[in-house]
Specification:
A hairpin with a 2-residue loop joins strand 19 (about 300-310) and strand 20 (about 310-315). This protein has two domains: about 40-90 and about 435-700, Rossmann fold; about 95-345, Prolyl oligopeptidase, N-terminal domain (Methylamine Dehydrogenase, Chain H). It has ten helices and 38 strands. The protein is globular, with a radius of gyration of 25 Å. It is α+β, with helices and mostly antiparallel strands.
Length: about 700
């Protein structure tokens, strides 16, 4: 796993160009949304917030408003003539055996498999490579309609127990259960109110992080604070769990706890929101010592890899924006005593595993994965031969393992699981997907374009071979650009119908991400956030200029921070897009920090409570920059009723403002998913329904009837 993917877990508008005016009344009759006289004073600036009442997601009035919006959207989508054809093709293309998450657990091998149209993947287990694969956990049996999602499975170090984590309704709140590996018997253990946590086994129990139990009415809305680390012993009630560590002086600290392979140490990484520097602690489990701070003054990102002879192997970007690998001696943890094992290189070090006595290091080379093997002392041995240009995930195992699994995939290469022999440096196929499409009919190119300030930005473009660059192709531009998250090639059956219809899928690797290390990330944080919007706008202009598509055939899509991206961009350059999908977006940049985990993003965006940061936040905040008299693209805003990461009121207030101010003929709709969170809980059937609605909305507003061939 990528140790830097934290468990958590923005004056005048720039670049509008010539405004496009549309005086024609829309044919849609939007629900009437009442306005209240709410005005806030931000450092002497008065800001209206007439839809503040929609933040009360538990009220009857909000529920009635959401019902009216859903009815409007459903009625619009149901009238699209080719909608059922899209759904049929999505159902057909998704019906194939999918494999993921392979691992070795002592004498057992496990993997996740979806036979095709199952709502959730099933966990299988087998003894030895030649053993029969039997069902270990089937989350499809957890709840009616698949509203309870299986999110994590971990084994005790002796493989006696299996701990598993569920998400009710897609929420970020998690519950833990325990079962016996050999018998499959579910035990009475039940842990609640874990969030942004992992189970890390130690002897006959595990460490985990949790928050205090919230009030029922506030559990999907209230700001969460004071995370704590506990130890749970199998067979005991949660009320008897032992408190291991907390910080009662800093309510914003969150904790990740990992036990070393030899069970000698507990290593704790403490994070404060999305801030890129973290604290570092450890506890000697053999002596049951107190938790000892190693890094008390955050000065870099530090991600624990494993223990070597009593010292801690750590990835860090300290004086190395592309990251390096170091050893920290807990007895002499000062930075002047750190030993560099693998120095920084020109490519970003993305992940490190210590398995089979070797260091397996994944790098990002222009957003593609390259994997190298090193001796523990840092001497490079060789690169691992990969099937092609794409993305690799995996290589998770223990120090004594002699084999490990990884998965390779790209935009047109379905995920294939490989079993890798560390001693022989040899890979062989373990499980392979069998998708009902011919990848040889499609091609992926990676180009580099210039942004507004001449920065060189990577762009992946996927389409049919022989595509005519006549500007008439429907195109779908995906972007994110934030939180050090790297956009790498991925495989999704959901884009196949788009490609079959002569469409173009494009993904831009925007600043703010982690594709080129911490400098690339910081180039779009705080007051530099406009760089992300400029990068995305330049990607759209590139696709149009090169004939891949036109402004009449281009759709903008982004989710979460990417939803913020899309909403901000269509405020600034609505002329570039025919369709827009701001999905589960952070859209109210003045109040985002007041809900759930929103405060954690102030280390990325800034906060309206700071006078200087307020100025640039209000300048691009999507909600506060919607203007009348602008020809906005056809827009479908997406949110989910159990999204307790990006609070649904962001989307509610934004769509209300859009429907009030936009007077053109393009539809401005809200799509609300039920029993789904911030991506979690989206089953196969719900995914089919969602992309049916998205493609129907997109093609219909582009004036295209899709033909799949």
């Amino acid at each position: 796993m990528n140790h830097f993917k934290k468990l958590i877990i923005i004056f005048t508008i720039v670049g509008l160009g010539t405004p496009l005016f549309c005086t024609e009344k829309t044919s849609l009759k939007y629900p009437v949304t009442k306005k209240i006289n709410q005005v806030d004073d931000y450092h002497g600036v008065k800001v209206k917030d007439p839809y503040r009442w929609l933040e009360d997601v538990n009220s009857k009035a909000t529920a009635q408003w959401v019902t009216a919006q859903k009815k409007l959207t459903d009625n619009y989508l149901e009238k699209i003539p080719f909608r059922e054809n899209i759904k049929a093709r999505l159902t057909e293309i998704s019906n194939y055996a999918k494999y993921s998450h392979a691992s070795k657990q002592g004498k057992y091998y496990t993997f996740w498999k979806n036979t095709g149209l199952q709502d959730q993947s099933v966990v299988y287990i087998q003894k030895g490579l030649a053993g029969d694969a039997n069902v270990l956990l089937d989350p499809n049996t957890f709840s009616a309609g698949g509203s309870v999602t299986l999110t994590q499975v971990t084994f005790s170090n002796d493989q006696k127990y299996v701990g598993y984590e569920i998400s009710p309704g897609g929420s970020d709140w998690r519950e833990y259960f325990v079962m016996e590996t050999e018998t499959g018997k579910k035990l009475n253990d039940h842990i609640q109110w874990a969030k942004f946590s992992e189970m890390s086994w130690y002897k006959d129990g595990f460490f985990y992080s949790r928050y205090d139990e919230p009030k029922e009415a506030d559990k999907l809305k209230a700001k969460i604070e004071f995370q704590k680390i506990f130890y749970h012993k199998v067979g005991t009630p949660q009320s008897e769990d032992k408190l291991i560590y907390c910080d009662n002086t800093n309510p914003l600290l969150g904790f990740g706890a990992r036990v070393t392979d030899n069970e000698k140490y507990l290593v704790i990484t403490a994070w404060e929101g999305s801030a890129t520097h973290n604290f570092f602690y450890y506890k000697n489990l053999e002596t049951d010592s107190a938790v000892i701070p190693l890094i008390e003054t955050p000065l870099a990102q530090l991600a624990f890899v494993e223990e070597i002879d009593g010292r801690l192997l750590v990835m860090t970007d300290y004086e190395a924006p592309n990251f390096k690998l170091i050893l920290i001696d807990p007895l002499n943890p000062q930075k002047e005593n750190w030993k560099v094992i693998i120095p920084e290189s020109k490519d970003k070090m993305d992940d490190v595993s210590f398995v089979g006595g070797k260091l397996i290091v994944s790098y990002l080379k222009d957003a593609n994965t390259v994997v190298s093997v090193f001796e523990p002392g840092g001497q490079k041995l060789y690169d691992i031969a990969l099937p092609g240009i794409g993305t690799v995930a995996g290589f998770n195992g223990k120090k004594e393992d002699n084999e490990v699994f990884y998965t390779f995939f790209s935009f047109t290469a379905p995920p294939t699981i490989y079993r890798y022999s560390i001693k022989e440096n040899k890979s062989e196929v373990f499980r392979k997907a069998d998708v009902k499409f011919d990848p040889d009919k499609f091609e992926t190119t990676q180009v580099f374009y210039e942004s507004k300030d001449k920065t060189r930005v990577p762009l992946f473009i996927v389409h049919k071979k022989g595509l005519e660059l006549n500007g008439q192709n429907p195109a779908y531009l995906f972007g994110y650009g934030g939180f050090n998250s790297s956009m790498q090639p991925f495989f999704s059956w959901t884009i196949i119908p788009l490609l079959e219809s002569g469409g173009v899928f494009a993904m831009a690797c925007l600043r703010g991400g982690g594709e080129y290390g911490e400098e690339w990330h910081r180039a779009a944080m705080f007051e530099k956030k406009q760089n992300v919007f400029d990068d995305y706008i330049a990607a759209a202009e590139y696709l149009i200029a090169k004939g891949y598509t036109s402004a009449r055939k281009l759709a903008a899509y982004g989710a979460s921070n990417g939803g913020l991206l899309v909403a901000a961009v269509i405020n600034q350059r609505p002329d570039l897009f025919r369709v827009a999908f701001p999905s589960v977006g952070v859209l109210d940049m003045l109040r985002y920090h007041k809900f759930t985990i929103g405060w954690a993003w102030a280390g990325e965006y800034g906060s309206s409570e700071n006078p200087q940061q307020f100025k640039y936040l209000v300048a691009y905040s999507p909600l506060h920059n919607i203007k009348g008299g602008i020809a906005y693209p056809a827009t479908m805003v997406e949110t989910a009723d159990h999204d307790d990461r990006v609070f649904p009121a962001h989307s509610f207030k934004y769509i209300a403002e859009m429907q009030e101010k936009y007077k053109g003929k393009n539809p401005i709709l809200l799509r609300v998913e039920t029993k789904v969170g911030h991506g979690t809980g989206s089953t196969t059937s719900k995914t089919i329904e969602r992309y049916t609605d998205m493609y129907s909305f997109m093609f219909y507003n582009m004036g295209i009837t899709p033909v799949f061939k």
